[in-house]
Design a protein that fits this description.
Layout: E1 17-21, E2 25-30, E3 37-41, E4 47-49, E5 61-65, E6 68-73, E7 78-92, E8 95-108, H1 117-134, E9 139-141, H2 151-156, H3 166-169, H4 182-186, E10 197-203, E11 220-222, E12 225-235, E13 259-267, E14 270-278, E15 285-286, E16 298-299, H5 305-320, E17 322-327, H6 333-346, E18 352-356, H7 359-363, H8 372-385, E19 388-390, E20 396-398, E21 402-407, H9 413-434, H10 447-469, H11 476-481, H12 486-505, H13 507-518, H14 538-561, H15 567-589, H16 591-594
Helix pairs in contact: 1-13, 9-10, 14-15
């Protein structure tokens, strides 16, 4: 179904561009309309309209690109981000949708030779961050419509809104590259400005052999009625970051890993939408990596804590209506203390219902069906909030009047299992309302179609997890099969080890890349270097420490094998073992110093 797409005044972006690389500038033209385009100087990064000279002369290279994602200025000049390859992943409400498969920064930094020695070092680090940005996962866009707005909001907008430039249609919370678009906006290059959504978009496949990052389209047949289910997750950019370096909320009430997930159903001319959100516990808290497998949670006492929680939920109430906050964290240990602090603050908000539910205690790792206990607690509010439904004539017959906000600690694994359970409940209610199901039928009645539904939610969890933690989601087999399997345990173990490595030794640099591209850090050539105060460089010390530990263990092992020969060998092995143990203790006690950490921005 196309929504308001029949008008000839719909705004459409140029879908294929030609990039000409000249010694002094880059020229970008629309292949469809070669007189439409712009140039950007390789010396100062200035953007200009096309002129007669831009079509003459021989360029050193000509290539096809599929969009301009924006510009960013570093110390030596401007860098232009272009989409170099894409994948057609299906349609959203009748409009083709694409996934970015590769991007590239074009450097306009001929001024680099004028930088000081320190500035050259800083610039080299910034350019390393741009390389990380080029491989950002989960970016989607459409040339024909905005994909950041949910269906209910689209229907509420004024007549003719789709004739506006796509970037003006978008919800700025979910535009991944909004900080990069300012230069293009200033130069009124509306038909070149592509808002990118980070998250994921999945449709029901025609057969059950999905693989991650492959967008599959097709139909499921519910009682011989063709239907399409689409999952769209939209990641908020306000507190964007990595798993350990972006926890909790900032002072404005924006939370880490905040994602709006929409489940769309198209069946027999009807189209429905069901929304859920997830986000980190909206307190000021941190969990700094220190080489331990599970670093301690630390709640930061701040005079603004109550205001932070209030700001967060006031924003949700304004955007979505009534809110039920489902807290899935453990009720003991560090998680229990954090949950207790959250519950205490929620008592001050009479217009938001707080529901604590210890996921691990109730469901463990094996019993997905025990989530019915949670549903029993919230069913009245859940069914009252409802869903959005449009009939075949385009008339709104039902609206969603509220939202379920779910969280665990990461808002990944437990949250995804819970959201998929609630999504199934809503889907059953919608299909019964449309008349395709009887009051006693559910999606689980239809085995093959139910498997497809569960696979969609499992893959959605994988991609969301990849963007935040760097690995696939844990507990994915609970979503797929309703229980933990041996294969799932092995997969979860591998993902847990990968998370440990990434969180401790890579995510600090990745957080810097995110802060740079999202505008939370702005490069300032007139200010001091952000790296001069960092006297201890974990990147250079960690290999030395690791080598010493490995060497000590090796020597200890060798001397132990010879310890029975004489007292001197035994004494040597004791000394080596003691030194190695002491070194390991020193490293452990200074674990934070050996971990990769952000260097551009603070935690809040």
């Amino acid at each position: 179904m196309e929504v308001q797409s029949g008008s000839t005044s719909n705004f459409k972006l140029w879908s294929e561009l030609e990039l000409h690389e000249f010694p002094n500038k880059f020229v970008i033209k629309s292949i469809e309309s070669p007189d439409q385009g712009f140039s950007i100087s390789r010396f100062d990064g200035n953007i200009n309209d096309l002129d007669d000279d831009d079509g003459s002369g021989s360029s050193s290279k000509v290539s096809t690109i599929y969009g301009v994602a924006g510009t960013i200025r570093l110390l030596a000049g401007t860098h232009l981000l272009v989409i170099t390859s894409r994948k057609d992943v299906g349609t959203y409400l009748g409009f083709p949708v694409f996934r970015v498969t590769s991007m590239k920064f074009l450097s306009c930094n001929e001024a680099s030779r004028f930088l000081t020695s320190q500035e050259k070092k800083d610039e080299a680090y910034f350019k390393t961050l741009l390389k990380i940005v080029e491989s950002t996962p989960g970016l989607y866009y459409s040339y024909g419509t905005d994909i950041t707005l949910n269906l209910q909001r689209r229907f509420k907008l004024a007549e003719g809104w789709m004739s506006r430039p796509v970037w003006k249609q978008a919800d700025p919370r979910f535009v991944w590259n909004r900080n990069l678009l300012e230069g293009l906006i200033e130069n009124k290059l509306d038909k070149f400005i592509i808002p990118l959504l980070q998250g994921n978009i999945l449709l029901t496949p025609t057969f059950l052999s999905p693989s991650l990052f492959i967008f599959q389209t097709g139909e499921i047949n519910l009682k011989n009625s063709p239907a399409v289910i689409t999952l769209i997750s939209r990641r908020c950019t306000r507190r964007l970051g990595t798993r350990m370096w972006r926890r909790g909320a900032n002072l404005e009430g924006d939370t880490a890993n905040f994602i709006e997930t929409e489940q769309l159903l198209e069946l027999g001319g009807y189209i429905s939408s069901f929304l859920q959100v997830r986000g980190s516990i909206p307190l000021l808290w941190e969990q700094i990596v220190d080489l331990s497998y599970k670093p301690r949670l630390n709640i930061i006492n701040h005079e603004q804590t109550s205001k932070v929680v209030e700001r967060h939920f006031n924003d949700l109430l304004q955007r979505y209506g009534e809110c039920v906050a489902v807290d899935l964290t453990d009720k003991h240990g560090d998680e229990g203390l954090l949950s207790m602090a959250y519950a205490s603050e929620m008592q001050k908000l009479p217009n938001v219902r707080y529901v604590p539910f210890d996921f691990h205690h109730a469901s463990g790792n094996t019993n997905f069906d025990n989530l019915q206990l949670l549903y029993d607690q919230i069913s009245e509010d859940f069914e009252k909030q409802g869903y959005f439904l449009v009939d075949p004539e385009g008339k709104i017959v039902a609206e969603q009047g509220g939202i379920i906000r779910s969280n665990c600690i990461d808002c990944l694994d437990r949250t995804n299992v819970t959201q998929s359970f609630l999504a199934k409940k809503s889907l059953d209610i919608q299909l019964q309302r449309i008349g395709d199901f009887s009051p006693i039928e559910t999606i689980s009645t239809f085995g093959e179609d139910f498997e497809i539904f569960k696979t969609l939610w499992a893959e959605q969890g994988d991609e969301i997890s990849l963007e935040y933690s760097g690995t696939l989601a844990l507990k994915g087999d609970i979503v797929r099969y309703g229980k933990q399997t041996m294969g799932g345990l092995i997969k979860d173990g591998m993902s847990a080890l990968s998370r440990y490595y990434l969180n401790n030794f890579q995510d600090g640099v990745r957080q810097d890349a995110i802060d740079l591209i999202s505008g939370h850090y702005t490069v300032n050539g007139n200010g001091p270097s952000p790296f001069q105060h960092n006297g201890f460089d974990s990147i250079s010390y960690l290999p030395v420490a690791s080598a010493l530990v490995i060497g000590g263990l090796t020597v200890t092992s060798i001397t132990l094998n010879q310890a029975g020969r004489n007292a001197q060998s035994f004494l040597s092995s004791v000394v080596c073992a003691g030194l190695t143990a002491g070194l390991m203790a020193v490293i452990k006690s200074n674990g934070r110093q050996f971990c990769s950490r952000p260097r551009l921005c603070g935690l809040f």
